[in-house]
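User: I've been going back and forth on whether these two constructs are worth ordering. Before I decide, could you fold them both?

Assistant: Sure. I'll take them in the order you sent them. The first construct and its structure tokens:
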Amino acid sequence: MNVLLKSAVIVDPTSKHHLKKRDVLIENGKISKISTSISITKKVKEIELPNLHISQGWFDPGVSFGEPGFEERETLTQGLKTAAHSGFTQVAVNANTYPVTDSKSNIKFLRSKAEGQPVSLYPIGALTLGSKGVDLAELYDMSNEGAVSFYDYKKSIENANLIKIALQYSQNFDALVQSFPFDPSVARNGMVNEEVNSTKLGLKGIPALAEELQISRDLYLLEYTGGKLHIPTISTQKSVRLIKEAKKNGLQVSCSVAIANLCLTDDLLESFDTRYKLMPPLRTLADVKALQKGLKEGVIDGVTSDHDPIDIEHKKTEFDHAKFGSIGLESCFGALRSIVDTETAIEALTRLKLVFKVPVNTITEGAVATLTLFDPDISWTFSEKDIVSTSKNSAFLGKELKGKAYGIYNNRKLVLNS
């Protein structure tokens, strides 16, 4: 589809048109012309929207869809549709499925299901067979089939030697290893952040120590082995300090933060609403401030929606029995833009492409068009009607947000919100 974007402010520090209002013509999937004004006689779809901004397409480094195995939560088709309407052109999909994505054939299945979709899917392979933390999975074969990283989704690798071997072995084919920052022997059966609120509410706590111990261990292993390590969804102020120090020492470590942990605190638990039962748990205001500062300083490499659809039977129940998790794609940009400026928000949603080896396309003439269309300034209240996902378990329902995606252009397809 050929498209003419009218009067769009370009937000792309790698482009000479950065922060300038331009018309952008897209033909045959590429940006053919960028100018202050473009008039055209041939057939194109002209897009003119209030306060239109465009950036490089947004990338989410960690989403979960239900398929295969949990289609009642969300199918791959529905998940990719949700991503498109939320402004994401590329998503890395966790091995949070049944069967677990731990083989070449599983990777092939995910990629084939996503063929022809406007959103590009990048599979994450399980680090261990069945994500059981015992034996390494087929990392090399999965890498050859298109896996961009290896990660047992939100499961701690208790055997330090396994992480050591994974980091050593993965260097042979330049792969990215992820390790969830969680020590279950410290966390025990905790459900929420261990602090004043957990005591007041009588809920079993997960101390910040459970995260920080695991990060310390993994950074020592990385220092010993070399290789590339990504620590997903950090949530405490000391975690930020540990990773900052490791980067200063030259280690190839990156990290992400979930949008909920970046914006919300454990004060919300007073309602006993299971939408706020998350992993990692919501922490204190001091933690939230440290995470926001870490993001602005570049210590935290990017933001993930941590999109995790859960069916109503497993979410709308007693707090003790409810599953951890929240959907996040639809509210991610609005929540992020509520706490940082537009340029920082776009950086947070695109920088991890380099870490995960996802193509980066500058907004310049001749480049492949992979674009997100958005209004960074609109204020709105997130409600159930804004949810595209099959599941409705959002921690941001009722929250005031700023900034909203209009849609995307990617893979020669235009998707716009109605």
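The second construct, handled the same way:
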Amino acid sequence: MTTKIAVSLPDDLVEQARAAVAEGRAASVSAYVAEALREKGEREPLGDFFEEFDKEFGAPTAEERARVDDILRRLGWKTD
């Protein structure tokens, strides 16, 4: 089942979605947005996991965070 809705998005995000379609990275703008929402929904429970992990084992040190940020940057992920 699919439901059609209307949303307002910043121009830069619309252009990002359209570029993904033009480059063949998404079938449509709707598919691009749906995937982004799906990924966000999957990350939120992961955040809960890390919160519990930190409670049990302690938060990572600044050095550990820097190392992970470096790895993620090299993989092309934003870390901000």
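Notes on the second construct follow. The chain has a mean pLDDT of 91. The longest helix spans residues 29-57.
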